[in-house]
Amino acid sequence: MLLKTPPLGWNSWNTFGEEINETVVMQSADTLIETGLAAAGYEYIVIDDCWLLRERGEDGRLVPDPVKFPHGIRYVSDYIHSKGLKFGMYSCAGYHTCAGYPASFDHEWTDAATFAEWGVDYLKYDYCFHPKTIPGHILYKRMAAALANCGRDIVFSACSWGSDMTKLWIKETGANLWRTTGDINDSWQSLKALSLVAGDAVRFGSINCFPDMDMLINGMHGKGNVGLAGCTDEEYRLHFSLWALMGSPLMIGCDIRDMDDFTKATLTNPEVLAINQDPDYNQPFDVSPESDPIPWTDTELHSSGEHPIYVRLLSDGDFAIGMFNLSDQPSNRWNTALQLDRIGLPETTGKTLVLRDVWTGEEVIVKGGIFSAVIAPHACRLFRARVIDKP
Ligand code: GLA
User: Minimal CA–CA distance to 154: which of 178, 181, 118?
Assistant: First the structure.
């Protein structure tokens, strides 16, 4: 199937982990609608690991845990669909899921058929406990072939954490999304580590094969399965800005039934979501003074500097521009300077940009081909920029 834009939704793992059950999932579907998240575009409700029993059934099929899902999975799926939402599930390319439950290796066709019968629209497919004798690209091809033949459109979300050079082979497998790194947790350390390598992954992303930077931690505030120290509001806003700009799926990880106003306002900002969902997925590129203007030619994992400035050309000719300060000091006019010639708009064109800050609504016209900002530690500016004739 063709996936044109990154999926928006909610996933159970970050907050609930093992504690997943029918009530949580169905209430989260209700909440997606009641809070306006669905109206803003969030449509997938995804059950992650730990939904099943430790053994397959006598018919060889995966069996939902009857305590967690007393009415079975189809019941939950029907409920989610009755709300106009889409339904996602989880399995793994190995013998076991990461939490040690049965997984799909050598059962790909049976499991794809089961997921199709259950009305699944999205499958997250992990990489734990896989046979070391079979390369990752073949493991993902096996499930991709089964899904493509299961009679239902199912978004195939590969989750091999960027390992074994996922970025080099993922597009040939048929996966629609691919996890670029190991797991996020709810702390600035984790957020910073993932942010530093974000630019590496996007070079290998495209429409129908979007880079998945992992599920969101916005609004977790240290609670739940991957809750650690928690982050400040500024840090959560940086997180959402970067994930949106890079074209990552935006899968909410907090307990949306108990979401604070700041989190809701962040997650539903229409201008930020419009950047994420722009119909042209032109790759973001780094134009910070610390970045190398010549694209890398090797395939090593590259880290940006601590002040990346990512730019993305949008379908209507605007630019999305994010200036990030991942360091512990305020940025300055040298390390956070946007030069218009680096994005293809030199002075000789007679053009410049109006930068509209999508968080504050403030507008500023770039003068003299350069715009510098002083950005607080762990904060960012995100703009939608319109090309105008120089005043
Ligand atoms: C891996 C994945 C996580 C989550 C867990 C579940 O760690 O990367 O996103 O799905 O497995 O066990």
Answer: 118
Contact 77, 119 (CB under 8 A): yes
Catalytic residue among 30, 65, 164, 183: 183
Q: How many CB atoms lie within 10 A of CB 99?
A: 18
- Best residue among 13, 89, 125, 157 to mutate for probing ligand 1's pocket (most ligand atoms within 8 Å of CB) is 13
Closest C-alpha to 99, from 18, 213, 38: 18
Q: How far is the CA of 329 from the centre of ligand 1 (A)?
A: 33
In what order do the strands lie in the sheet containing 319-324?
285-286, 309-313, 319-324, 380-389, 351-357, 363-365
Q: Residue 38: in which H helix or E strand, if any?
A: helix 37-40
370 CB neighbour count, 10 Å cutoff: 14
Q: Is 260 a catalytic residue?
A: no
**Tens digit of each residue's pLDDT (9 = 90 or more) over 94-104:** 999 999 999 99
Atom of ligand 1 nearest to the CA of 124: 10
Report pLDDT digits (tens) over 262-298.
Answer: 999 999 999 999 999 999 999 999 999 999 777 778 8
Query: Quick one: how many helices (H) and strands (E) in the chain?
Result: 12, 18
Whole-angstrom distance, CA of residue 69 vs CA of residue 60: 19
**Residue indicated by tokens 């009679």:** 151
- Ligand 1 centroid to residue 16 C-alpha, Å: 12
Nearest-CA residue for atom 9 of ligand 1: 183
Q: Which residues line ligand 1 (CB under 6 A)?
A: 13, 48-49, 97-99, 126, 159, 161, 183
Say whether pTM exceeds 0.85.
yes
For residues 382 and 241, the answer to whether their CB atoms sit within 8 Å is yes
